[in-house]
Amino acid sequence: MLFLKRIGERPEPAPPPEWKDAGCWMASRNTGVFLLDIRGYLLLVNPGLARLTGYAENELRGRHFRRLLSPGAAWTLFRLIHRVWTRKEARLLTARLRRSDSEWRDIELLIQPVGEKNQEIAGFIGHIWDVSARPEPCFFSGKFSLCSPGGLPEEIPAAEKSGENALIRICPAAIAVLNHDFRVERINRAFERLFGYGIRDAEGRLLGDLIIPESLRDQAPETGWRMPDGEKGEVYSLRRRQDGRHINVGINIAPVMPEGRSAGIYVVYRDRTPDRERENEIRFRTSNDTVTGLLNREAFYRQLKWRIREPLTTGTTGWTLLHMDIERFRVINEAIGYKEGDEVLALLGRRLMVALRQSDLVSRIGSDEFLLLIGGVVDKTDLLHLTKKIRNVVSQVIQLDERQFVLQPRFGAARFPADGRSAPRLLKCAEMALYSAKEKGEEIHFFTEDIHARILERIDLEQSLRKALRRDEFVLHYQPLVNDRYDVVGMEALVRWQHPEKGLLDPGSFIPMAEETGLIVPLGKQILRLACRQGRELQKSMGRNLFISVNLSARQFRDPCLADQVLAAISDAGLQPETLKLEITESAIMEDPDDAVEKMRRLTAAGTQFSVDDFGTGYSSLSQLRRFPIDTLKIDKSFITNKTGKKNGVTEQEIVKAIISMARDLGICVIAEGVETKTQKKFLDHHGCRIMQGFYFSHPLPYEQIQTIFTRVSRLRLDHPSGAGQTPPAGAA
């Protein structure tokens, strides 16, 4: 059921009271000017709009403005008004207008909000120009020419000022009306808020003396400077407030033209300070590191490309690119936390800025990596002096809460143009030089072509390592562990690479690369399974349980799956867990003691034993190691082969005796590595070391030649009849 009610004609909307005195001014304008309410209905129109549309003024009032535009432009107008409403700023639209005679005109339309700042918008002021028929400058047109040279009238007719003042007063933009001498006649409240001047402060004064900095007056559009013909748009510049503070503003100018005659100019200002601040912040964030404030990688790269072209125009003698990193920063970061680590990095950035000249560039490109571009310094002696200065500044003690840290930088240097003539080449050369400095333990290393060759070799090595893992090219050699009676009590499995082209390679030629690339984890897993399988076969052939010793790398020991891998290898090979001894360095254990204890206890609960390899070379003590389930210490061979040497005033022999004595008191077995002579063995026998290993007994040999090991040890036993005998196995694999 439908009910209809006659409500009569819709009353014509009326403008707010404060707009009624604008009619006189609107009537005098040649440009189309109108007032809209918040719904888009026309409240007031001037004769210029009536002439442009072909409708009478009374026909236009009360009509919705979108009915004058093309359908597509009407929808665009809706979105434009919405933006003016929400953002409270003027918007410009190019559209097509349909006249009463159905003729289409191309127009420019400016919509401005009406209402006091921070208050509800009361409506909109609109300005329309027929862009094809009227190219002359008009109110808010954005053209920056002043007036024709025909002369200016002394004053604007008083009859027109009342309506004009009403519009200027309610306009949200800052407006100053100047006479032909560029002196202020009127300003609105928005101008007072923006610049701090009242009408009494500004009236009659030159605008340049009020708000234009002296250095900018020669080209200020408000004081007569002319833009080139046809130039449009808003000019952005600095202006001075009454309190002396400078602000960024957008400036638009239009002539005052009562009855078609030029009588002065309108100057319209828009505060762009918040926009510029946002732009500066965005620009900073896209070009600078957020932690240190230094340039980021992309911004540094752009500067590098520009600066290495600079010698062609400025005569700069050359550039040096330093790639710097901080030793062991990852350990510091993990120890104190990432937030505090960022504070350390921020302090480091400030120190680098202090150490360098203002013309040099500094960038943070990674966690602890920095790039430094130094101009005019390419001599090695000068660069060594410079890096020493940087090191002294960077390595000053950092106090963070109760902790103190010392940062140690390392440098790789590449010079332009000697090492490269392009930005990518220089970056690569500096990176390779830094890598070489790390490899050799140097504080600074200069790029040379042989570094490049070594890098290529390392790339080839990594690729070959991956292939070798897939092809099972790694084999095990075994070295015996012999007791004081010349009995072989165990075997240590030592990896070798049976390279298809280079032959048998020692671990020193590939283990560091495997550690660096992470390939040590799958390699260690492969070695472990092979050692368990061959160890079980050896035990069967001998009829007794020799223990098998397998080395674990630090990275492999950190693998959370280590315990599962070890137990799976033991189970698959059928090896008794108590005959497997896992060797790990003391530094690897102390890296994360809690995690180490958990893994070791799980494996020792299954019967597996642990041995600390190279004991004495780290910084831990026996008292620290007591918390770990360890049953064997291996004295590093450096203490055995250098008996006459001293460490901190103590001879190597005294260190060995102390280790043996303390380990015996703690119930820990001791194995001496690197025994190469009979004299060394006698020394160890005399001081109670019962198990030894070294070339004196046998070099490492492949599994297929393991019988040779027993034969060699048997001959040594026969030379020392005091030792108990041992019968070699009848046939060892």
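The record above closes out task 2.4. Task 2.5 opens with a second protein, given below.
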Amino acid sequence: MVTIHSDLTDFKGKTDEVPADKTPHIHLQPYGNGLKMNMRVRPFKNQGPYFAPGMGGKTVIATVKGKNKQTTRDLGEEQIIAKSLIADCPTLADTDNGTWEWVFDEMDQALNMLLEIENLTQKPVIEWPEGKPIKLSKPLSINEMSFSIQKKTDWFETNGELHIDEDKTLLFRNLLDLIDSTPGNFIPLDDHHFLVLKDQFRRQLEAFSAICKKTKKGASIHRLAALALGNFCDGARSIHSDRHWKKHLKHLEEGLSYEPKVPTTFKGELRPYQIEGVQWLMRLAYWQVGACLADDMGLGKTIQALALMLSCAHEGPVLVVAPSSVTFNWLRECKRFAPTLNPSLFMGKNRKEQIENLKPFDLLICSYALLVNESDHLKKVSWRVVLLDEAQAIKNADTKRYQAAIQLMGKFKMITTGTPIENHLGELWNLFQFINPGLLQSRKAFNQGFAGPIEQNGDRKKRLALKKLIQPFILRRLKTQVLDELPAKTEIVLEVVQSDEEIALYEAIRQQALEKLSNASDTQKGQQSLMILAEIMRLRRACCHPRLVLPESQIASSKLNLVGDVLEDLLANNHKALVFSQFVDHLTIVREYLDQKGISYQYLDGKTPAKARQKRIDGFQAGEGNVFLISLKAGGIGLNLTAADYVLHLDPWWNPAVEDQATDRAHRIGQLRPVTVYRFVTQDTIEQKILALHHNKRNLARDLLSGSDMTGKMSNEELLRLIET
């Protein structure tokens, strides 16, 4: 074949004249992990030479199959058509460099380009001069799925297949495996064949894969995740299910449409959000699934729970397990708001008779300590409702308390907590294993599928999948969302500047800690976490007062001096304050100071008897004492101390949720004045580093219940860095 291309036009009549073809030709060939692409035109259509669009001579003469042929190209029109094609393909337009050549280093980008070209109305000619052509399926959606659903104990087994085309299908289990191993919308079946998934279908598959348990042919999903499965199957090509699945869906629909009313026997006025909370609890009780009422501290979780109990106590006895510090509060609130219930404290010598004589409308209030001691008796009762108050008490699955709680039998199980997650996602698994066992699968599967990816890698898709899975069973409202009338809360960090003597003492303790840890024996290194935490504890105590590390020290405490100045100023202006510290011996030093100054106060720590505790709370509320000294762990829950409008945190705790709970003893319903929170933090010490951790810790719970990233447990290396730098 001889080809001549020229701008001359005097060859007419000597050859056969044919019209020039302007259709773009796409030349593709493998290039590294991607593809290389050239765009050309071929004036003689399927034969003859190629040219870059609009480039070369206008007149082309060629001998094609033994015949001389001539054509006249419209160079401008070629470029218009080619540029129009580029404009209609975003992948080409975004990478166009004006040379009519493209290199796609990543296969996903190359496949996206191919898909865009295949979807064009005016299609170009695609050619593979080198290598085997890549074939893409049509864009696939849930409409190409067939499902079969059957009940297996508490799970629904879901099998099925994806109809790729008339002759090819893919097992649902294999599709899930490919989704887990391949990112993006292009799923390789082999080196030259790819499935193309629509965006929504890809997201649906990822969400389903995150909450399912894979089986030999498909996947199983827990009955309580059926809402997610039902939504997933909507729009499928076909669904074949057994009667159990249909019955379960009907039960779900009835539960969702059930509109309960607050029992008329409830004596009290509920706020609108509390009515919604009671109805939500009643709906889940009707559905016979567990509930986590996780409202912010001070929003009235107790009275919402009591209203729920009134709705079903006629069917059997109710058990409330609570910290011993709030058992009397439960008794008092029950008598006030739910007088038709028969509340009693589980205590004294007749505990066995109390259990044996239980009947409908009885409400047994038990401490966590007695839950463990009397587990053998309590676990034999078929309770209508089992409620764990301040349920973070069972966040550690290795404790006897957790094991005793898990064995309780209740038709409806619920928990109340203002802090569903304090430190890491394992705590959430523990709580849900009580209210809805199996929903979050085994601990190992949960750690691999959710906790690890979310805490270690910040996996947003996994976090959203987990949020969607637990959302029907957890209700959380913040005070800022539902209480317009609640006074403002202002938080202020007061930095403590140490004296030269305190700085020298702190630095000496820090150096001693580093030396001790570096010289630890192999046996001791096996307990490295405990050793590091012990040294950190000494540093934290040194920040509070030199006497907490050296009892005979005569060094004055800069922190105590600042606390004293703040208290004197507050009291001079007729304010009352709650003072929290995690160290009881630190509170002892503060008590000495208040005694010296003649300042009246109340005091409460973990050793305060329950009756004395309530008496001191009532006394403070009635005006007896201007300051209330409280140990953080003993007084952070179950107290109503709205007589105070200032809260002082003398030392930062690892988890700000614990401090927030303590603060909300004052900032809650019934508070009429703005609340100011002072955090005393010593400059250039470990206290400032702990404060820096608070931001991430706060996000841990908030982000799962609303959105964003998370942090998990701290490693030994991270803990050690708190001492080193």
